[in-house]
Every structure is written in structure tokens, then in C-alpha cells.
Amino acid sequence: MKEILEKVKRVFPLQNIKKQRENLYFVETEKIHLVSLITNLRDINGFKHLVLLTAVDRIENGVFQLTYLLNNDELKIDLGVRVFLDRENAEMESIHHLWKQAATYQRELREMFGINFSGSPRVDKAFILEGWDGMPPYRRDFDTLKYSEETYFPRPGRSTNDPAEYMKQKMYPDE
Amino acid sequence: MSKEHTEKRIVYSPDGEPIEIDPIKDYFEGGRPEIRNPRNGIIEKFANWARSESLWILGFGTGCGAIEMRPLMTPRFDAYRFGYQWRPTPRQSSVFVISGYLSVKTLKRVIRSYEQMQNPKFVVALGSCTINGGMYYDSYNTINRLDHYLPVDVYITGCMPRPEALLAGFDHLKRKIKEGRGEGANKYAENFDWYKANQKKIIKDWDIPDYNW
Amino acid sequence: MDTIWIKLLFSLLTIFIVLNYGLLLQGVVRKIGARVGRRYGIRWYQPWIDIIKNYAKRTKITHGIMYYIAPAFRLTGGIGLLLFMPVIYGTDMFSNFSFTGDLLLLLYFQFFGVLGMALGAAEGGHPYSAMGVSRGLAQVTAYELTLTLGIIAIAVQYQTLSITEIVAAQQGGIANWTIITNPLAGIALMLAFLAAMGRSPFDVVIAPQEIPIGPPTEFHSGLLGVLQLNRAIFPAAKLILFMNLLFGGATDWGTLIIKTFLIYMWSVFVGVAFPRFRVDQSIRWYLFIPLIIGVLAVLFMKF
Known about the structure:
Shape of chain B: globular
Order of helices and strands of chain B: EEHHEHEEHEHEHHH
Distance between the termini of chain C: 47 Å
Largest interface: B-C, 29 and 30 residues
CATH topology of the largest domain in chain B: Rossmann fold
CATH architecture of the largest domain in chain B: 3-Layer(aba) Sandwich
Largest sheet of chain C: none
Order of helices and strands of chain C: HHHHHHHHHHHH
Largest sheet of chain B: 3 strands, parallel
Oligomer: heterotrimer
Number of strands of chain B: 7
Strand content of chain B: 5-15%
């Protein structure tokens, strides 16, 4: 793992190399280098399998963090490649030409976060939310409670208890 | 918002004759549900007895509660002895068990299935999610109150209710039908506009007819 | 003039008795199946309630004329099979409309209902119904070969096409029954009987929770009620046919009920013991051993 990263680092700028465990590393790179880096990892360094592609909304920094988790089956190691996108007009190059299944991940991210993967097949088709026309719901500035209350006729009289406190009072009222 | 496959179009036969196709009309047949008043007296009582003793459940697992229905078929609970049977098609069934949360996407299919069932039809809502949203009360994608979209006959609370609770709920439904209060289908027909307005408020890509049989 | 009216009355009575007997059989057999699976099972009168419930539905929709006619076709198959054969041997009245060539007619009635259903299901517009019908027809065709060969063997054996005469030839004790005197034809017919009853392992085409429910997917309310009536009458009529052909017929209702019940148990026990065949499996099975037995039965009669 170390050797591969050293080798790749000579060609691509990698920051924040983080060791999660012996066989799982995370690295950060820049947006423009991502596709060539992943192509390099796939074709030269044996990371042949895309485990997942996911996004995190880092609203404090004003960025989306994309994680491409790759797996090398021969060496039994995983490598997560992270990249940060601007939250406004979030856009990313598509990698569906490397792995076909990436198109599905990109379709989901487009719908849930509003990240645009131009060129990805069927990316504009509704994935889970049919006919959704508001802010993408996984963005952290989307208030799901407010949306739910406005849309889904909340039943009045609903109350919530903290389970730990509630059970403590029920079972040990004297303490 | 309509979709391509529901728009009117003209196709040409091999002879070059134009044929107009209106998918909503040709494939679904619109219209409105009609109110069918129950007959009076002993005939209706007898029919209600038969309806309550032969509840055919639509086998459509809508939420996680579908897991709680399967044990009813097993030797331990054996719901068949009370006259419940599972049917695979909405046409032949009379009870629709909404098993747990409903996402907007599922709700659309549920409405279609419900409307395809034939008149004396009953809805059993299973689990807290159907009553007030349950643990999904603040979700952007699951409904909170089922009774705004379909007429519900019996609620069974719990998250999830045990199969025994389900049996008790079905028992309650039986009593309700025998008393002649199982008129959900007529209620739906009466308040059709209200139900439709609620449904259309959340189902944004409405590409089905307003009522399919 | 008078006799035809009396005959009609008695045939109605026959249909009524056989219908209720068929429903009772359904209930009892499902109960037995449940008990084999260690369940309590349905109430024995559940089939009656289901039919009443279906007729009591307030709405029904239509897909066209053939959609209405199909259940009637199906029921005609059942009732036709029942009325053109002597139900009780030796009585004028319960021999109904049997005549000298009835054996051939009954072979046609086997197929009649399924064909009607094919037309109706196609008009229902459900893509799976067409699939279910074609699967059903394929299976019927497969077992029909064995059935026909067995019946030909029996016709050659007794030199007649009249069921009444076949029954008459079997009177006078178990030793005269066709199953004893012509075991090859008997085995062939009893193997064809398994599929003819539409029970497991050959019920994949009509099993409710299979890919389609089969042809009746779109049928509902009263139309489904008609189909249910047929599902009571048709098996009962087939039971009576096999009893007439192989087990010496019956001279009174008590004998009939005992004999047909025991014959039914053959398919029930096979059914609870064996899981379902897929259609291609059942066709392959029928076109091998049962078919060979059927051919042997005919050849055996020749030499």
C-alpha cells in the first residue's frame, strides 16, 4: 500500500494521506486530477473494483466531499479517494466510462445532493424521488422536519420522549 | 407534469392508416368511483357475514411491516383458520394491508392498487408510521397520515405490531364489517375530490388517470 | 315429453349434489393439507363462504364480451363433462344424457374450458394471463396424450365407446374392475389423473402465488365466482369419470362418494408429498414414462 501511494504521489498531488487501518487508506486530491488519478489506480495499480461513490455535505466549509472507494482484490486493500467540490454549482466529471455502475451512483447523487455529473447516462431521470422539484433533500440546509410538516399533514398531539429517560422513570421512579 | 408514455399520439398501421392513441383512456379508462349503497335488511347482513369471514388480503408488502404478515401463514399463527387468504392480484382481494411506512413513490402504487380492488374493500393500516409518521415523522419522503389519502378501516399500533396484534386487528375489522360499518369504498367515492387533492399535492409526477376503475 | 322435463330436473339435481360435494372435497382436502403441514387449516365450509363473498361484491368491470363468456365456457366444460356421462350406473335418471359415443365427447370436454379461458384471459389485457394460459395449455396437451392412450386401450378392451357399457362390463366384484383386468391402461390413466386434477405437483399454472395467478388474474367478483363453481364441479366430474372407467362405477350415491373420495386421495397424497414441477419439467415427465406406459397399454390390447 505504502509503495503504491509513494509511486502515485510522484505523478499526482495527494494530500492528507490517512491510515485508517492496515488495509484501508484515505487520500485527498484535487478535482481536476481525480479522473486521471482513478484511471491510473485502476489500470496500473490494480484497483479494479469501485466499491462505492458517496458524498458528504460539509456545509461549514461550503463544500461537498466526494469519496470514491476503490478495492484492489489481489492485495486485498481499499483506498478511498476524496475530492472537494464547491457547494455552489457543484459539478464533477463523470466516471461512468471506467465503471458502468458509477452511473447509478451519480444519478442518485444528482438527485439527493444536486451534484451535476454531466455526460453520465440517464443522470437527469428521477431515481427515487419521482417528480421532486425542490431543493435536493440530502443537502444539510434542507429542513426535513419543516418540509414534512408543510407537506404531509402532521397529526396533532404527537409527543416524543427520550427513551433512556423515559424508561428510567418508568422502571425506577424512586431514584 | 405528464410523461411521454401518457401523452396522446398517432401511430400508423401497415396500410398507412392513422390510429389515434390516448393511453390514459385506452389503457386505464378514467371516470369516477360510484357510490354503491348497501341493500337493506337480512340480505346485506348475510353478505356482510360472508365478507367478514372470507377476507382476501392483497399480498403487497408496502413497508417493513410486511415481515409481520408472513408469520400469519405459518403453523404458529395460521390465519387461514379465520378465513384470511392471500391473493396476488388486487382484483380479487378485499383487504389491503398497508404494512408500515409509505414513501411517496410507494403511495402512488398503493393508490392504483386500491382503486383496482372491487367495491366492498377494506384498508388495514399497520404500525405507527401509518398513523402519525412514527419514527419517520420528519422524513422528506414518507407520509405522516394515511387517512388523508385512503379511507382506513382499522389501525394497528406498534412499531412493529406483533402478529398477535395483527390477528386482533383483523378481528376488529371483522366485527366492523358485520355491523355494516365497513363502507370505506363508498367513503372514498363520496370524498373523492378531497382524497385526490391530497394525493396530488404530494405525488408530483401524476402520470396515471384520476381513477382507474 | 314428460321424460325430458324429468331428465332436466334430475340433471339439475345432479349438478347441485356434485357442486356441493366438490366444494366439500375442496374444504376437506385443504384441511388435510394443512394438517400435514401441522396447521389447523381452514374451516371445512370456507369454499362456500368464498363463493358467496365473491357474488356479493358490489362492482365489477369488463374488458369486453369474451371476458364475460370465458367463465361460462369454463363452467360449460365442467357441467358438460358431468352431464354426458352416467353418474349413477343402473338408474335412468342419474345417467343423465349419456349416449353410446360419450367417451369421445368427454375427451373434447377436457380441453373445452381451457380454450375458453385462453380467449377470455387474452381479452383481459393482462400480459401474464396469456403466459399463464399458454403454460396451462402446454401442460394439458402433455398429459392429454397419456390420457387418450389409456382411454383408447380401454375402448379397445371393451370394444365400445359408451361409458355405460364399460361400467356394465365391470360389475360383479373387484376382480372385474378395469384397474385389475387392464393394469397398464389403469396406471397410464392414474398418472394422467394427477395432472388432470390440477393439484400439486402439477398445479403451477393455477397456483395463486406463482408468477401470474394464471389465467384468472383479471377475473373478479361474480366472474371469479363462476370459475370457483367450476373448480368444484370439474374435479368432481373427473373423479366420477375415472371411477366409471377404472373402478367399476357406482350404483348409489354412497358408493360414489366413498369411491371418488378415495380416488381423490391418490392425487392429494401425491400432492402433499411432492413439490411443484415447473411446466417444462412436468411436460418432460409426462412425455417419458407415462407416455411409454400408455403406448404399451394400447400395444398390449393389440396383441
